[in-house]
């Protein structure tokens, strides 16, 4: 872990931004790079509704462009001397984060917990919990 990059998955939320500080601190401490990952959900369309003006592929491309714009804004605000790589993937967030961690052979994943509890916890997929349970590298979940 001490010589491998830190992976910080983000959805560009304030909660995720809070975890970025921890990711930067860890990367600085171990003098490694920072990989920033955003996963765009694959749009799903049902042809029977016929409400889409754009195709699911066009929608996904638009979402990827918006993510790239957000990534550029984020990079412009970062004040760090770290080596930073950005990645945008399309698909299921859990699968894509775990795949990126494995493919890039990262030393740690630092991500935010959205802090759901009670009924909301059971009704919504908890990405951070699933990643912590399935990851083969250490995971730091920031509240």
From TrEMBL:
<dbReference type="InterPro" id="IPR014729">
    <property type="entry name" value="Rossmann-like_a/b/a_fold"/>
</dbReference>
<comment type="similarity">
    <text>Belongs to the universal stress protein A family.</text>
</comment>
<dbReference type="InterPro" id="IPR006015">
    <property type="entry name" value="Universal_stress_UspA"/>
</dbReference>
<dbReference type="InterPro" id="IPR006016">
    <property type="entry name" value="UspA"/>
</dbReference>
<feature type="domain" description="UspA">
    <location>
        <begin position="4"/>
        <end position="143"/>
    </location>
</feature>
<keyword id="KW-0963">Cytoplasm</keyword>
<protein>
    <recommendedName>
        <fullName>Universal stress protein</fullName>
    </recommendedName>
</protein>
<dbReference type="Pfam" id="PF00582">
    <property type="entry name" value="Usp"/>
</dbReference>
């Amino acid at each position: 872990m001490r010589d491998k990059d830190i992976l910080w998955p983000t959805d560009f939320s304030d909660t995720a931004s809070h975890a970025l500080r921890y990711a930067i601190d860890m990367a600085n401490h171990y003098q490694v790079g920072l990989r920033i990952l955003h996963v765009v959900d694959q749009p799903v369309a049902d042809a029977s509704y016929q409400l889409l003006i754009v195709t699911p592929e066009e929608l996904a491309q638009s979402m990827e462009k918006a993510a790239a714009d957000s990534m550029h804004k984020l990079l412009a605000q970062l004040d760090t001397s770290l080596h930073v790589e950005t990645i945008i993937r399309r698909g299921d967030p859990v699968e894509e984060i775990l795949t990126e961690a494995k493919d890039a052979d990262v030393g740690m994943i630092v991500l935010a917990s959205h802090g759901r509890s009670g009924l909301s916890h059971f009704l919504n997929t908890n990405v951070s919990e699933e990643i912590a349970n399935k990851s083969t590298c250490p995971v730091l979940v920031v509240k």
